[in-house]
Design brief:
Blueprint: E1 2-12, E2 14-15, E3 18-25, E4 31-34, E5 37-39, H1 46-58, E6 60-77, E7 86-102, E8 112-119, H2 130-141
């Protein structure tokens, strides 16, 4: 089985009681709301990754105001066609960001279809990836260790 490590950086941007999200399509083509962010390029600092990804996906520039925490997940991706199954390990760095410039726009030829602000109270009703809830918990609770893998007890 092939092994793959992916490190990514995401931003929680809350303004006037609203969360900035981007719409992406999963492997089945179903649209899901995601945090703006994405994979780190080789040699890139994660701080620069989150700023670049937010701009690419939303049109906004952000000031990173803090590291909220990390989340790690591991799962097996099934074999597809001639490709072997993959033991995928994702490490996600979740930052807090404040909009510092730019204008809301949609990404062209990228991984997301559009970006939009959503009332925080409406987020639970959205079709979204689990990282959105994990990141919002980190943003609200700000755990001392910054570990987003396990729910608080």
């Amino acid at each position: 089985m092939r092994r793959k490590l992916r490190v990514a950086a995401y931003a929680v941007c809350v303004r006037d009681g609203q969360l900035l999200l981007a719409l992406s399509r999963n492997d089945e083509g179903t649209p899901e709301w995601v945090l703006p962010g994405g994979g780190m390029e080789h040699g890139e600092d994660p701080y620069d990754t989150v700023r670049r990804e937010v701009t690419e996906e939303t049109g906004y520039r952000i000031a990173v105001t803090g590291l909220l925490g990390t989340h790690s997940n591991r799962h097996t991706l099934p074999r597809r066609g001639l490709r072997r199954a993959v033991d995928h390990h994702g490490v996600r760095l979740v930052y807090e960001g404040r909009i510092s410039g730019g204008e809301l726009r949609f990404e062209e030829n990228g991984s997301t279809d559009l970006a939009a602000w959503h009332d925080l109270d409406a987020v639970p009703g959205l079709t979204r990836i689990p990282l959105v809830d994990i990141a919002l918990r980190l943003w609200r609770e700000r755990p001392a260790g910054g570990q987003g893998n396990h729910p608080t007890k």
